[in-house]
Amino acid sequence: MEAVLLIMIFLVCFNFVLKQTYRKPWYVLASAVVCALFVVVAWPWAIEQSKSQLHDWLNNPKLMLDTAVILSIEVIIQMAYCILAVHLAYTGRVRRRTVWLYRLLRWFPGLLIFPVLFYIETQGMFLFTGADFQVVAYGLAACVFILVPVLTWGVRWLVPEKELRLEVFFLSNALIAILGIIATVNGR
Fold first, then answer.
1. Cα 158 → chain centroid
2. What is the residue-wise DSSP string for 25-94?
3. Are 136 and 58 in contact (CB under 8 A)?
4. Element (H, E) at 130
5. Helix (H, G, I), strand (E, B) or coil at 24
6. Predicted pLDDT at 188
7. How confident is the model at residue 92 (pLDDT cuts 50, 70, 90)?
8. Which domain holds residue 78?
9. How far is it, in rounded angstroms, from Cα 163 to Cα 80?
10. How much is the pLDDT for 185?
11. pLDDT higher than 60, residue 15
12. Per the UniProt record, which residue ranges are transmembrane (predicted)?
């Protein structure tokens, strides 16, 4: 179960960065600021978590089913973005409603990054036990603020073709959906 969770965390982070590659630099920086602020604001709740409590949450079938629903909604939204992007790229005339929906989905960054950041923050609190929690939170926030743009531009440099990035984005969302099913079944 832990391995599936870690793979899902990696894929959610990867998807977030991959989706940022379609953004303008100011939006990437704004996303980095929002993520860093979330880490700074969430540290009082992160220090209240215990390893046994997190373990109990991961082994709670009802909570895993609720999480799977949220995960499925996010994956559907991201896959719809991929499908509409391909549709707009290779279709002549499209309706205004389709273009409007594409623009709306393009601006949706994904919400799963926030629980992932919270999980990473709690694990950071466990890792740096002797350090001041606020210092750990601000250090993680600085790392997030730096890593989001750097990784975004790194992925854009490694995979310059938009179509290939879109394909990878679609496939990684499909993998997240499959892992969500595995995690839900595993939790039962």
1. 20
2. HHHHHHHHHHHHHHHHHHHHHHTT--HHHHHHHHT-HHHHHHHHHHHHHHHHHHHHHHHHHHHHHH-SS-
3. no
4. none
5. coil
6. 56
7. confident
8. 2-187
9. 15
10. 76
11. yes
12. 29-47, 68-90, 135-156, 168-187
pTM of the model: 0.90
Residue corresponding to tokens 């890792």: 127
Token pair for 171: 């496939």
Question: Three-state SS across 166-188?
Answer: HHHHHHHHHHHHHHHHHHHHHHC
How many beta carbons lie within 10 A of that of residue 166, not counting itself?
20
Say if residue 18 is exposed, middle or buried (CB neighbours under 10 Å; 0-12, 13-18, 19+). Answer: buried
Number of domains in the chain: 1
Which comes out higher in pLDDT, residue 40 or 67?
40
Could you count the other beta carbons within 10 Å of the beta carbon of residue 1?
13
Q: How far apart are alpha carbons 156 and 131 in whole angstroms?
A: 36
When pLDDT is cut at 50, 70 and 90, the band that residue 186 belongs to is low
- Residue 152 CB neighbours (<10 A): 24
